Amino acid sequence: MLENQLLKIAEDFGSPVYVYDAEKIEAQYNRLTNAFSGVKKLKLNYAVKALSNISILKLFNKLGSGIDTVSLQEIELGLKAGFKPQQIIFTPNGVSLAEIEEAAKLGVEINIDNLSILEQFGTKHPNIPVCIRINPHIMAGGNANISVGHIDSKFGISIHQIPHILRIVENTGMTINGIHMHTGSDILDIEVFLYASEILFDTAKQFKNLDFIDFGSGFKVPYKEGDIETNIEELGKKLTAKFNAFCKEYGKDLTLAFEPGKFLVSESGYFLTKVNAVKQTTSTVFAQVDSGFNHLIRPMFYGSHHDIINISNPNGSERFYTVVGYICETDTFGSNRRIKEISEGDVLCFKNAGAYCFSMASNYNSRFRPAEVLWYNNEAHLIRKRETFDDIIKNQIEVDFSEKKEKELAK
């Protein structure tokens, strides 16, 4: 998006505000589908947790995507957005059997990553096919918090427990219709996927009623100029060849599935904040903005990088700034960044703000969560109103302390 368009949005809708470019989302979706055009059956399930605004979900529905969900609430959002149950896969972790049964009642695809739950579900519902999530014991991902396929991960059923899975299937008479894995996010080396694919294919050979194999996601997107990203086109070429060869050996054209989140929406997002103050200390120049980790926690949580630009002064000379928020704890968005000279009242734009940004926002410090805007067909559409004080207190229940005091006075 152009800087003048973003400035106009900040002026019209106030700050802080999240902005998403629908054209970029569609381009990323098409890039991924084109990379795997050699596969007869391809299914992309957008990971709802990345950005769950219902208008974003409707956009993915329009593009022909399915969705990957991790909670009953995400399933309900998907259904409300127009997705059919068969377009939704439920891939939770650590939830109760009761929650999985509720999801099954809604008719969505069930993905189970726990031997105990698999046995309980198969015993009670042997006629409902399920997918199983495998832990391939591969260390992958840009940060320990987003690497989920290693041996110590809480996610998935170990590949070494396949014999146990087979015994459960035999004892319950249940059907396994899919094999799934997700090794982590921000994976740079496509060889990780290719190595993991061999593990998944070897596992899949042991299940005779499969309809799909799901490789999760974890594709790396660039966060700054010159940054490394996953080579989707090369991955598509190499994995397509391996997958098609496996389908021929298996004797059936299976569906190749992915669950991209960040890859589809990260680069579409911009977070706009206004500079409250420029504070000079003995060693640092702070740009203090009207937001904090209550709105964008990723830099503090993951150490993630978001390019920060001054869209109010794009032609100014550069200075070094540390950009910080207004939360009463350390909330540094970026240290010693070269940014065009900043004045109080300027609008700063944080890039790559589409994935795991608003979806992790909170009301910490009793601050309002910001508005969301979708740039679609060269027009700004408000898709979430900025919260008000009524939103902060609407579910709170006040205790009446006056009654006890009146009784004490009566004595």
Automatic annotation (TrEMBL):
Organism of provenance: Aestuariibaculum marinum
Quaternary context: Homodimer.
Name of this chain's protein: Diaminopimelate decarboxylase
Enzyme nomenclature, EC number: 4.1.1.20
Domain Orn/DAP/Arg decarboxylase 2 C-terminal: 18-354
Record-stated family: Belongs to the Orn/Lys/Arg decarboxylase class-II family. LysA subfamily.
Residues bearing PTM N6-(pyridoxal phosphate)lysine: K49
Primary role: Specifically catalyzes the decarboxylation of meso-diaminopimelate (meso-DAP) to L-lysine.
Active site: C328 (proton donor)
The protein's annotated pathway: Amino-acid biosynthesis; L-lysine biosynthesis via DAP pathway; L-lysine from DL-2,6-diaminopimelate: step 1/1
